[in-house]
Amino acid sequence: MPETLTSSEVVTLTINGQEVSARTDETIMEVAEEQGIRIPALCHISGLSDIGACRLCVVEIQGSPKLQPACVTRVSEGMTVSTHTDRLRAHRRTIVEMLFAERNHVCSVCVSNGHCDLQNLAVECGMQEVTLPYLAPKLQVDASHKRFVMDPNRCVMCTRCVRVCDEIEGAHTWDIMGRGVDSRVITDLGKPWGESDTCTSCGKCVQVCPTGALFEKGVSVAEMTKRRQFLPYLKTMREVPK
Amino acid sequence: MNLDELESTAAREREQCAGQKCRLRVCTGTGCASAGSDRLTEALRQRAKERGLEGEVTVTEVGCLGLCAEGPLVKVDATDTLYQNVTPNLADNVLDSLTGEAAGITVCNEKQPFFTRQNRVVLENAGYIESDRIESYIARDGYRALLHVLAEMSPADVVAAITQSGLRGRGGAGYPTGLKWSTVAKATGPRKYVVCNGDEGDPGAFMDRSVMEDDPHRVLEGMAIAAYAVGANHGYIYVRAEYPRAIKRLKTAISRAERQGLLGSSIAGTSFSFTIDLRVGAGAFVCGEETALIASVQGNRGTPRPRPPYPAMSGLWGCPTLINNVETLGSIAPIIRCGAPWYAGIGTEKSHGTKVFCLTGAIKNTGLIEVPMGITLREIVFDIGGGIPNGGTFKAVQTGGPSGGCIPEKYLDMPVDYESLREVGSIMGSGGMIVMDQTSCMVDVARFFMEFCMSESCGKCIPCRVGTAEMYKLLTRIATGEANMNDLAKLEELCEMVRETSLCGLGQSAPNPVISTLRYFRDEYLAHVNEGVCPAGVCPMNARKGVTTHA
């Protein structure tokens, strides 16, 4: 039975054989991070709500027949968690491979080459080649905004842009249309970004985007580095003092 | 309306029916309706009028009489005869049969196993009542269970009764209904909700549609009893937009029940209030998944979210929410009326009661059936279903829709219950049963279901979004003769991975049709891959030059 959000007992659990203490309002991901255990993740970014969608952070919990996403699963007393079994490594590698097969990710010509979360994940998860058939549809690039560009060919549908725009900026310019492999992130109701009535041009979406799907105009190959310091800062400043 | 008023309404209605000299019940279930039963009703009324039989012959539109394959069906009460294949131009022949010999129309044998082997609980009223008239439902003991519960039972008693009955969720997974009710009853929150899941979307399944169309008050009564048991005062029925007739009839039923004081505030003069709203889906299969359904009811994009928290703790607007399938809620009133031990006595040790199935595909008696749990597949297919038509041979039966699997002949004598079906790699599912003969190619079947899952995937999680598309692509390679053994190995690898890592039930079960066909019909896959041949002659196999398909 899930814990209610208000309770915060301290419990003891085991992660990868190591006993750790945690509050019951913490997630497995948070506790693992405290212990210096990195669990690969893509849709998760500290400062935004978690949706458990990318499935990279799934972990094994003893007694649970199903794999659970570490970013949204809260800890409980006596829980025994494994974060890097062979099975999990294999699944993560396949997930990253799926992303490379889904759209058109050619690092050598990408603005984010060398600074890309997807690229780093491929290295981290040991993905060396794409063995799945490429889907790679040809998608229209939206360069209508005066400062930014959206290249859906590099989008991994993590919805960080959707969430940062909604939760932090409060504009909700981004959303998703379509479903399955045909789903796309869109601005307003599918208008070109440059014509959006709601976009404040704050650029937060560009900074949280894990790949080169959202980037600033004027940067060339490998020149787009993302500045995400604002997110933990805003999050801390907005927290109500206890 | 209190119990006395309910009984007098029932008595009045029964008297009125008994007073009708000759009652013709025309099936207007969607199967018969598409075969012309709406026009038949009109023709019957018209011809009766022309013959001056207006006062004597009453033509009533009733719900599904079951044997869809032989529709339109007409039941003549005066002579106790069921006629089949009554097309609108045969209206005169039906009227002739009232006074003399039946000529030109076919009598349907009601002694055949299709009718005698069934045990109708949820469908007890189908074919008898007029769905738009609440009196018609009341005359068949409708709302008696609700009034009994409100007057004589505590909410805890109701939960105990449902638990004792052994009823399990009829939506597919078979979660114990009593346990779900007791979880919601014990959960705390400012409000609670009861939701009826009428987003039936499996290919070949139309059980819930039938219940909602033919007996909408049964669903409302079940919801009201559930609401009383868990402490909810508001409910939603979520129906897919593809069921316009069900939507219309449910709307009518809700307003009729409200007018009679059987829904709304102070039901039957007690302090219990319960209102129901209808929500229409927008064409997404995934909205049958409970967390996606909740998002959709709230007006958001219909995508699932990770559980826990389960809707029983945090559902609609964060409040404890009970979500049950149409058929589950349709079983509630009979359980209360006839007692939990009666219901628990039907079926097997772990699966109690009856289950409605839709028999479709290569089978003689296509239609809607309700059978006790534990019946064997052979009885369903060969006795009730009448076997394979046109001299075909049985190959497999597919249960559970895109989340289920194909069961080969060697398991035909297995009892139909939740555990047995799971053991052979399929699931009970919502009740679709597609029978296949030797002309079906199992690769093609798997590919069909994978295409369905691919286009119905919401796209939120990567394994389901990309995985279903990749598996579809690999299956297409196999079906066109382009595949090699690596592709087959890759397909199997993806099945495992998508099943284990997907966010919701849709993704987790999407590989099932592939896994089960690979398990029982691996040789067919190998014939496609190694020999470039589709043994059933279905797949195009056009990529290989000079290889033609076996006819």
The fraction of residues assigned to DSSP E strands of chain B is 5-15%
What integer value in Å does the Rg of chain B equal? 24 Å
Give the oligomeric state.
heterodimer
- What is the share of helical residues of chain B? 40-55%
- SSE arrangement of chain A, N to C: EEHEEEHHEHEEHEH
Put simply, the count of helices of chain A is 6
What is the topology, as strand order, of the major beta sheet of chain A? 2-1-5-3-4
Helix-strand category of chain B: alpha/beta
Chain-averaged pLDDT of chain A = 94
Shape of chain A: globular
Number of helices of chain B: 24
Uncertain runs of chain B with pLDDT below 50, 5 residues or more?
none
The structural class of chain A is alpha+beta
CATH architecture group name of the largest domain in chain A:
2-Layer Sandwich
Query: Count of DSSP E strands of chain B?
Result: 14
Characterize the structure shown.
The complex is a heterodimer of chains A (242) and B (551). Chain A has 2 domains: 10-84, Ubiquitin-like (UB roll) (Roll), CATH 3.10.20; 107-238, 2-Layer Sandwich (Alpha-Beta Plaits), CATH 3.30.70. Chain A has helices at residues 28-34, 86-102, 117-124, 160-169, 204-208, 230-238, and strands spanning 10-15, 18-23, 58-61, 68-69, 80-82, 148-150, 174-177, 184-187, 214-216. Chain A is 23% helix and 14% strand. A 5-stranded mixed sheet of chain A has the order 2-1-5-3-4, covered by helices on one side. A two-stranded antiparallel sheet of chain A has the order 6-9. Chain A contains 6 helices and 9 strands; from the N terminus they run ββαβββααβαββαβα. Chain B is an alpha/beta fold. Chain B has 4 domains: 16-111, Glutaredoxin (3-Layer(aba) Sandwich); 141-343, Rossmann fold (3-Layer(aba) Sandwich); 351-437, Ubiquitin-like (UB roll); 442-531, NADH-ubiquinone oxidoreductase 51kDa subunit, iron-sulphur binding domain (de novo design (two linked rop proteins)), CATH 1.20.1440. Helices cover 43% and strands 14% of the residues of chain B. Chain B is built from 24 helices and 14 strands. Chain B has helices at 3-19, 30-34, 37-50, 91-99, 113-116, 134-139, 144-152, 155-165, 177-186, 207-214, 216-230, 244-259, 290-297, 326-330, 332-338, 340-344, 377-384, 418-423, 442-456, 462-479, 485-501, 505-509, 512-520, 522-531, and strands at residues 22-27, 57-62, 74-76, 81-84, 106-108, 193-198, 234-239, 275-280, 321-325, 354-361, 367-372, 394-399, 405-408, 432-437. A 5-stranded mixed sheet of chain B has the order 2-1-3-4-5, covered by helices on one side. A 5-stranded mixed sheet of chain B has the order 11-10-14-12-13. Chain B has a 4-stranded parallel sheet with strand order 8-7-6-9, with helices on both faces. In chain B, strand 3 and strand 4 (81-84) form a beta hairpin. The radius of gyration of chain B is 24 Å and the shape is globular. The interface between A and B is large, with 38 and 38 residues.
